[in-house]
Amino acid sequence: MKLSKRALVAVAIAAWMIPRPAPAQERVTFGLDWVAEAEYGGYYQAVATGLYAKRGLDVTIRQGGPQVNHMQMLMAGNLDFNLGGGRAIEFAAEGLPYLAVAAMFQKELAVLIAHPGVGSDSFESLKGKPVAIGADTRNGWWRFLAAKYGYSDSQIRPYTFNMAPFLVNKELIQQGYLSSEPYLIEKESGIKPRVLLLADAGYLGYANIVTTSRKLVESNPDLVQRFIDASIEGWYSYLYGDPAPGNRLIRQANPEMPQELIDYARGVLKARGIVDSGDTETLGIGAMTDARWRAFYAAQVAVGVYKPGIDISKAYTTRFVNKKVGIELKK
Hints:
Layout: H1 5-17, E1 26-31, H2 41-48, H3 51-54, E2 57-62, H4 70-75, E3 81-82, H5 88-94, E4 98-105, E5 110-114, E6 131-133, H6 135-138, H7 141-149, E7 156-158, H8 164-168, E8 173-177, H9 181-189, E9 194-197, E10 207-213, H10 214-219, H11 221-240, H12 244-253, H13 259-271, H14 280-283, H15 290-302
Parallel strand pairs: 1-2, 1-3, 6-7, 6-8
Antiparallel strand pairs: 3-10, 4-10, 5-8, 5-9
Helix pairs in contact: 2-11, 2-12
């Protein structure tokens, strides 16, 4: 039996109105380099506000910590993305198939912290004074400062991640992070320390760098792009919108994290342009440039951190950033 045109139209409309299951979301696992805190607020915000889901992604954030090696998990295929991009040049030097795909921090959070009123108010003034730093720092950004300001390794004192030596010795300077130790020192002692941000000394290293495998970049660039775009929008939302959704997830993941410290950290990330400054003002959060990667590498070669001759074009790609994604969300 043939159907009339009117009947055929009715059937077509009815078929169109039948609810269809939503397309399955792609699962993504993302490893942090420390426990949940405001320094990862943009990612938690992207989960909490549905920015990842909007792009068809079901993202699981895995916290890091002292006993967690997420780089090994990325290499084993147990993570899709990892905040391990600080080693990107090492990956290139060793021929490892991993690379940086976005730099969410334009400035390193590393600082040197000094007591007020003792003449330790600038990087220049620290020459010859005792400075407590860890082994990784000694072989990293300390070399940059030593070369620029004439520091000597004889100044180095062991850093044990304990504030007590600093609090009892007004002459001692210690390393720390802008978003935590200054707050903790002031809360513990009432002392408002002098805080010298490494980036203000001209250190060009990016931070909070998202890393993935070259295999994923080549086999599923669309997924990489969606993850980076949503992460960038998450950072705009966290910094310039209501951070409460992201903060709730941070505290769920890390109940020991006090809200006061979260608020402090978010405030300094914003006030000091850690996430949004320089190139991001025109290119958007997550920006990376060839010129800056080359300048950073040259500066590190000059002080012996890296060997010359590394093809740093294999350390990163700007394919997924510099597109002004989310920049209209800035208020």
